[in-house]
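Repro:
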Amino acid sequence: MEMLRALIGPDNGDATAAQFCARAAILFVVGIAYIRVAGRRTFSHASPLDIIVAIVVGSNLSRAMTGKAPFGPTLAATLLLVALHRVLMMLTIRWNWLAKLMKCEPVVLVREGVEDREAMRRHGIGQVDLLEGLRLEQVEAPEDVRLATLENSGKISVVRRHAAPS
């Protein structure tokens, strides 16, 4: 515990810039883990990485603005988060394994008209949710679907089994 306290500094706002950066890095990792636990549909149109950066940057800037945290070290920690976000996004382009970790992989919910109930259960998609997603794509029933996928954004994309009548 003493090692952690030395790493992150005191809780009274007297931490050094390096300690604020250590706190920011720790919160970054913990925040992504929490959002991953909450599930992709919780913040459906942003990646966990984008969400945690937005929340923490907003919070940091707010605290710096109101004087609740030392201005310089708080800005340093916020800059570290923004730079870390940028670097991770650039690395996800290069390494697919990192992209999968940061952005999730699409999940097949329906294939050739057959629902994958286990995949739906694992990702918190109920029958009502699936049917809503299908209706939003102008499809009436799972039997009319060649492929329905829960995308990284939390949206359900649909490929019809038969072309829609013109």
